[in-house]
Design brief:
Structural class: alpha+beta
Number of strands: 20
Largest sheet: 11 strands, antiparallel
Length: 714
Amino acid sequence: MKTYKKICAALLTALLCVPSLKADEGMWLLPYLKQQNIKRMQEMGLTLSAEQIYNPGQGSVIDAVVHFDGGCTGELISSQGLLLTNHHCGYDQIREHSTVTNNFLRDGFYAPTMKDELPNPGLVVTFIDEIVDVTDYVNAYLKKAKCNDPMEYLSRDYLTKVANAWYKKNRGKKPGYIVLDLAPFYEGNKFILSISKEYSDVRLVAAPPSSIGSYGADTDNWVWPRHSGDFCVFRIYTDKDGKPAKYDPNNVPMRPKFHFKVNSGGLNEDDFVMIMGYPGRTNHFYTAAEVAERRDIDNTVRIDMRKVRQETMLAEMRADEAVNIQYASKYARSTNAYKNAIGSNWAIRKMDFEGMKKDQQAKLTKYATENNKPEYIEAMKKIEEMVAQRADFRKQVWMIDEGLLRAVESVGAPVLDEKTFNELKSNADKRTKFINEKYLTYFNKDYNKEVDRKVTKAMLTAFINGTAPENLPAVLRGVKDINGFVNNLLDKTIYRDASVLESAIINGDYASYDADPVVRLSKDVHALHADVKGKVAGFDREFARVRKTYVKGIMEMEGEMNVWPDANSTVRYTFGKLKGYIPRDNVYYGFQTTMEGVMEKEDPTNPEYTLSPKLKDIYNRKDFGSYALANGKMPVDICATTHTTGGNSGSPVIDKYGNLVGLNFDRNWEGVGGDINYLADYQRSIICDVRYVLLILDKYLGAQRLIDEMDIAK
């Protein structure tokens, strides 16, 4: 009997120490890998130790992962600093190097020698040098500084001062290439400092044409199955001593402490995979009230307003190819967040996130009551009250942002204040600079007045119908004739032409300028937006305080090591399996796509699905070399149960041996709700299979020297 009781007690203890999470959930912190997940990962198939994954500067996996250009992730794939990331992450650099005669976006690019690799001023990548828990130091610093305002001490600007002070005290003088990022975790219950080395000599080496790198473009965004070769290749250079340095033709390729071997043999469904990268933002500590707010205000306003704009633009784009070219990128930018909001609301409703959060809050209430922690109950009550109190202001902000600021181009016109107007009036050089750098940048080749007319009429109609009269910008109050208002706005404005605007500045006065219809609309909208945003911000200070208390309660109840902190653009790891899913009844998506799907989607009339003759020839000849599957088909993309979000673009996807099998580039729309609550049955990371990368480098770009430079593992 005693033995039985001991066994039960041991089992209970073990269960209490296991993270109370669904399989594959979480964006975890690397310093706690050993305490949290390494055993579970090894049980799933991982052969690496915690030290082989995270031991900065000692030749572990973390030494091959970079934060790319501040918003993406990349990975080293050779002993000479060869770096892989997504095509869409390197898009700006590829575009900057493109010309009419050498259009690398259209045709792709490959540097046949290192001397031909192209420098990219302004592009930087950073490597983690050290991650330090500095919570005690920060709390002591705040106490000494008598700083208890969360709007101040949670800001990255304030924390930068704290980071510099910590570094000076604990590490001495900071070299110029060291970058400090001190960030709050768990709503400010913890502070962790990332110390990184920054490299600024990063050169473009290879990129597929956009017809491969962004195949499917906007239509396939957030969609699985996918058929995109979303990759490009750079190289990091250092000075002769191996230290970060500005671009210099005499710099040498980086000699990293670790780089990934490339798995050219592929994996099977249910095989273990791990991802490391820099996810941007999640909100998995939302309360039930915040989930409802996200669903009913943020997402709903975005969906409703963008749908109006997109339908209007699309009708014009389909009717005129010139308009299609002008508005393609505007349409794509709009639909990106539109699809995200739809997917988020789908998940919130289907999985009853509001109910899940209510259950969690009930659990915390019980814990707080039993442990005499009334502050946790009070925090939840206060959050619910403030969400209700700010609802009207929050909806107004979202309506103005989505219905006017992002949708009506005239609202974004470069409007002058009186001081600047008078400066331009008397200074020809400043006036010319304003026209060239402000006016012509805004009303550029991609602006179409007649399309703007139709979009503006549609958006003002939707905005006015969805807004209480007293909440309208002054210029829109009492407007009955939308057609007449918009026609006057676009036809009578001095902004209709650069020469007319310049003449109005030279020959007119500010009162006349200020009465212009575009000026009045822009000023009134921005003034109202600032006013309402200020009212919403009035809740932020108290909100930050009580959310810190609420999350502290969750950490205390669940155990800190069992709870992962929300993403905040700091390095994380996630793990799971390659696996398909069932998006709806009687439909199944497998985990692997092939070039058959690339060919099936081809549409010569649609630039999103246009294929080059060279790629079709490779397919028709089945010239796949050793990269093909056992059945002879050529793999393109894969999907996994890993927990990712924006910022994970370009992240390395590795197998149980630590070899690279692909690079993450997207999520499925059914999984975007994972930013609030992980969706085990639906959430999938979309990954470019590294075998497709190798095929394109080898057979399409002829980059044999790059293949030879890699360590290929079968």
